[in-house]
Each structure stands twice: as C-alpha cells, then as structure tokens.
Amino acid sequence: MSSYEISKSENYLNYCSDKIRPLPVTGPDAKPLPKMTLDGQVVEFVPGDTIMQVAERAKVASRIPRYCYHPGLSIAGTCRMCTVEVEKAPKLMTACSTPATDGMVVRTRSEKVLKSRSGVVDCLLASHPLDCPVCDKAGECELQDYDYEYGPSRSSFVDEKRVFPKSSTRKLSDKIVLNMNRCVACERCVRFTDEVTKTNDLVMLNRGWKKELTVGDEDKGLYNDYQGCLSDFCPVGALTWSDFRFQKRVWFLRGNASICDRCAKGCNIEVHSEKEIIYRFVPIYNPKVNAHWICDEGRLSYKMVTNSHRVIAPLLEVAGHGPTATSWETLIPVTASLLKNSSRALLVLGTDSTMEECENLRKFFSKFVQNGEIRYFNGTGITTSSENKALDHLLRQNDKTPNTKGVESLGLKPLDVAGVNGFDTVILFRSGRAGIPSVAAAKNLILWGVWSDEEVRAQKNVRALLPGLATQEKSGTFMNCDGILQSFKKAVEHRGYGLDVTRIIEKF
Amino acid sequence: MGTINVSREYSVKEKMFLPAIIQGMIITLKRFIQGFIFHKKYTIMYPEERRNYSQRFRGMHFISVDENKVENCTACFLCETVCPAECIHIVAEERDSASNPYGVRKEKKPLSFDIEVLRCCFCGFCEEACPKDAIKLSRNYELSILSRQEGIYDLNHLKREVKGRG
Q: pLDDT-derived band of residue A17, with 50, 70 and 90 as boundaries?
C-alpha cells in the first residue's frame, strides 16, 4: 500500500475542487482537447473549465488576482478583480466565471486589465480603514498584496470612510471576531456556511454602502464547527480567529506540513511556529482527505503540544515523593530492571502512536520482556475502528485518535474487559490523544510518551515516566478512518528532554 | 597556515630614541604653557556646560503618548521586524474594551515593550518604521547605567510626554 507524503504545493492548493473538475473524455469517440492562448502561451484544457481553472492548470494562476473566487466554493463573480481581456469580446470578462472556449485568446496583463484592477482596488480601499498595524491579517492579506501589485499610487477619494460602529469589533462567537470596516464583501464566508457547513449562520444584510455581515439567527449566533476556516479564507482581516488574535504577526511564522491528530480523519495541516513554539494550525488542501478545511477542535488541538503542564523531563518514583524529575541515565537502568524482574508484563499502545512506533515498540518488547503481551487502547468512547462514525457530513469523527485503523492493521488486539488484571508491570504508551485505561490493578506502571502533570498525578502506581514526542514533533505514518496511509515529517523541534521511541530503545 | 614577516630594519634615528622623546616633550611643554599661562581650555565643564549636538542626534528612546497619557504604540511589531540589532521585544494584547474610549483604533496594545539598549545601535530604523509615530529617539545622550539590568528599557521607562525631539 502506498502512502501519501504530506506537503504543500501552491499549484495543488489553488486547484479547483474535485466536484467541479470535469474529466476528459476517454474512449473511441474521444476528440483532441481544445486549445486556448493564455498570455501568448497555447494551453490545452478540459471542456467546462473556466479561464481561472485553465490558468491554474497551466500554473499561472498567480497572474489572476481574486477575492470572491475560492476553489472550494461555488463561483460568484462579484468582486470583478479577476477580469481579463478576451479577444473579440467588447468588455473585460471575469476569469472565474467565463468558460474557456476553443481558440480563445486571453491576456491577463494588458494595459486595459491593469487599469481595471487598479480601479477595483481603489474602490475597495475607499472605505477600508487601513489599520494594517493593528490587523492580524497583515502579511497574508490579499487586499494588501493586490494593492501593492495592482493598486493606484494614491486614492482618488477624499470622503469620510464608512464606519460600522456596532460591528467594528464584534464577537460573532467565542472563536470569531468580526471587524466589518475591513470587509470587502466578497461573500466567501456566506457561501461557505451555505454550501460547505450547510448551517447558513452568516448572512449579508442590506445593500450597497450599508451592506453588512451578520449572523443568520441572533439567538444561535455563529455556531458551525468549522469557524476557523472563515478566518483562513477571508481575504482581509474582517473575520479573525480569536485564539490567534494579537498573538503573533504572520511574517514571523514558519510553516511546516504535518497531520492533525485530533481525530481519525487525519486532516493535513500546516504547523505555524516561531522558535519551535506552535501558534496555530492551518489546513493544507488534500482532495482525498480534508479538501480545504479543518474543524475548530483540530485547529485548537495544538494546545496539548504547547501545554505548560506537559511533562517533558524523565520522571522516576522516589519513595515518599512520588514521581520526581531525573535524567535519562538514571531512569533507563531502573526501568530495565523493572521490566526484567516482572513476571508478566503488558504493553498498551495508544491508538495515537504512529505505525513506526508500534513496530519498534513491538520489536523492543518481544526482545526485552520474556512473558509479555501487547494490546492497543483507544479510550475516546470507542474500542475498535469499526465503531467509529462520522459526526457530520464533513470531517469530524467519533474516534478522537488518529491511527486506530493503522494499529489494527498491524494485527494488535484491543485491551479487553479483563484490562490489566494478572499483569504486574504495565507500560502505557500514548501521544496525548488516546484515553487512559484503568490500571490501578497493576503493581508497577511505566508511562511513556506525552503526558500532562494532572494525568500523571491521577495514577497512584507510577514507577517511571519516559517523555516522548507529540505528533507534530516527530515523523511517522498514520492510517486514517478511510484507510488512507499518510506519512508526515517533523514540523517543530521538541523543546524538552523528550526523545523519539527509537532513541529511547537504543538506550536500553 | 603561513605567516607574513612584517619586521623591518630600524633607521639610525629610530635606534637612538632621543629625538622622539624630545619631540614628545615639546608638545607637552606647549600644552603646559597654553593651559597654565594663557588659560586655554580643551575640555568643557560637564555637566554644568553641555555641547550643542545636531537636531538629528539619535539618543535615548521614548514612546510618545496622547492627551490621555495612553501610549500611541499599537504593538504592530514593525520596529521589532526592522530592528537590525534585534533588541526590541514586544508582547501584544487586547486593550480591555470597557476602558477603551478609542474603540477599534487602539484595540491592540503592548503588554510589554522592552528595548535592550546595550544591544541597540541607534540606527533609528524603528522610528522610521513606526506607523503611529510612537517610538522615537530623543536627543538625550546621557545613557549611563550602573547595572546591566537597567539596560533594558521597559514600557514604563519609555512612555514619556516629550515635547519636540526631547
């Protein structure tokens, strides 16, 4: 079985979503593909593509600016930013909504087009507050970028700017803050709640100068589970993500691809970090898994990695003091003798371990322990992957660990009702996501992986703790709930004494 | 690694040393006569007397405040971004909306604003980058400190009502 490498390519990200991608006709009646000229370059296209999609396929999509067009949403054609010059057409045409035809000649950078774009940006900036120093979008703002590229050198307006006193800083929900003054009325957010989440909790009120974004139902507010995406695709800073608000300017952040491990879906994410501290997760386009979106729960799940109560030093039990911080050199011989002297040992793998970790631990365990058994444990409300079910029509899953299917595919058995009875030494390995089985019956308990202070204190019989790496801090492979193998690389460096499983095994 | 020999033969005059000593003593004598007999001064009586520096002199930093003594800084991080010495450290937070008469204009504020003045090279880039005219370099050149800890200017130290360029 082949696995996908998680990475981000600009062309892939910009590409139109699969549902509207027409497939070329194959078979005996297949005709040669039609051709069009794009900036002097002859490109083939599939019938049904719009000019924007042809440009994306020819990898020159960055030549056409856009506000209302988003590959994951339906085409609106309202912002007039993507206009291009089509030969023999009397006026400029919108690239996002004009279907390409055979023999069409399109120019994306002619003088007429640039003049039109300059006018569009000028009008959008007519009542934009230009508060980039305060705005969190600055640095990744499409209005900023396109104004720099296409905008006029000075505004042609002298009037007072439009201000929405009530919606200048309005909390639409706990997660999203609206600043209506910045909005360019592209309606991506309205179409998102209409088509993707199907909750219709954002609507545009009034028309023209007084056009205003508001929630569909004042009592319910904004309630969908994918609110973070609103702030991702908002081309300006109108909708901002409360958790990231004022935390960091985006140009300091470094983005590395990884996988969200908050549920069995395995959404592809980009981990944004500075100095190895994670500030946010944003989705990466993957048509087979998550398309353009991730849920809010997954987006906020970076807090487990940066949790200040996470144990990042080796712990060893000292009589009368409980688990106390120590060094690897002290810890390893004690753990080794514990395992050697146990009559019957059990290794419980959390279903958030990667395939590689499971294999390595299995080899280590069978070599090191005479009378041992290995089980897996999910602990997030389900036992095996067959009990997993989708919580909505998009991404969210019942199984809150990323690799239940993968651990099962290695031939491991779930931890049964008898639990840890009959075992005197139990090793619990997890990466912070899987639940914790009740292990009070075991004499010696060895914790391994990502644990928080509270979780360690809750266990009374902890003899040692071997700190490990969270998903974003290591590389590995997960099998998601649809059976897709996805491998990922390390996104951030671990900032503690935690080590990878292979490094710890080497020490024994 | 090879070495380059730069030693050379001394001339006769250099070997004798005496002409150089006499030359030096003449200068000393000249200054002695000028100072003691004609009272000519080469230094000023600082701190009673001050030198007049250029209007564009860049000295101690300050953050300008508005009429309500609230800092103009909105924690946009542009000075931190442009600083070549990486001596500015800002932590931003949201201004409490209840006590914010400015509304959206000043909703973001610096929680802490530290300048490591021992690292600063007084290039003035921060002043140039600031979109709110908040951080400025005054003409105050008396920056001596007694401990390294005082070399970190925090927001309380920087926030000052200064007229003109200080």
A: very low
- A124-241, CATH topology level: Alpha-Beta Plaits (3.30.70)
Structure tokens given for A365: 């365990």
Cβ neighbours of A247 in B, within 8 Å? 92
| Residue with the two structure tokens 């990323």 | A402
- Residues in chain A whose Cβ is within 8 Å of chain B: 129, 131-134, 138, 168-169, 179, 181, 245-247, 249, 251-252
Query: For residue A465, what are the β-bridge partners?
Result: A315, A447
The CATH fold assigned to A4-109 is Ubiquitin-like (UB roll) (3.10.20)
The three-class DSSP label of residue A283 is strand
Q: Do B94 and A179 touch (CB under 8 A)?
A: no
Q: Is the ipTM of this complex over 0.85?
A: no
DSSP assignment of A251-269 equals GG-EEEEEE--SSTT--EE
What confidence tens digit (pLDDT) does each residue in A396-411 have? 888 888 988 888 888 8
Angle among Cα A126, A130, A131 to the nearest 5 degrees reads 150
β-strand partners of A431: A450
Nearest 5°: phi and psi at A21?
-85, 115
The region of weakest confidence among A418-427, A476-485, B29-38 is A418-427
Residue B50 has pLDDT above 60, yes or no: yes
Number of H helices, E strands in chain A: 13, 24
